[in-house]
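Technical note accompanying the year-one report. For the benefit of new consortium partners, we illustrate the data format agreed upon in the data management plan: each record pairs a sequence with a structure-token string. No post-processing was applied to the example shown here.
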Amino acid sequence: MNHFSGCPNTLFVVRHGESAGNLARNAANTARALEIHSSCRDVDVPLSPLGERQSTALGHWFGALPTDQRPTVVITSPYLRARQTTDIIKALGHFRYTTDSAGSLQDERVREKEFGILDGLTRYGISARFPEQAALRTSLGKFYHRPPGGESWCDVVLRLRSALEMMCREFHGERILVVAHSVVVLCMRYIIEGLSESDILAIDRSTEVANCSLTRFDTDTTVGKPGRMTLDSFNFVAPLQEEGTPITSASDAADA
């Protein structure tokens, strides 16, 4: 477990809704293609129609919470699919904000993991075009492997530690919603719960983080000062199930 200088009362971490990139990756993998067809940068990939429905279902769920349980601060990845998810949830969630940010802050520290020279490639493309990187990833493991021009999971953890320290310092006692990406959800667990490499990779192997799933941490104020964040729920998809919205979990990542 990790202690911070202050803690939010509640931290919700949500993966964005299904994106056009998820669909393109599925199609490329099914065809055993080397590349994922995309007409834009990863940062500009939008939600799919289903991703909009998933975001709507989660927005309805937040809106049905008692007012004193809804988020008071919203932080989003700058990637379009995360911002669109955030906008839909905000429109339906009826949040009462305590910041001067019109309800949300964009923070590049919660962006998707960067893939460098592997960006846009399937696992077949990586093996065919960069066999040395495929071998290095196998040797080092996905937690420590950093493709040229990209990031390892450790790099994501480093920037998330900074983001979490900011949240604890500036939004102590608030209820924070972070809308980001699957690797961010997992790395948040790694940091807050004080997990090991083997712990988090075991979770990654056993559970695919679903689109618009919710992971929640609550602060236990009985444990020291100023308290400790503990995991309440992980990969919670009941809001989608309640509205009959299909659940998807396709990865955006070449190293999935």
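Partners are asked to follow this layout when depositing records. Residues 153-170 form the longest helix (18 residues).
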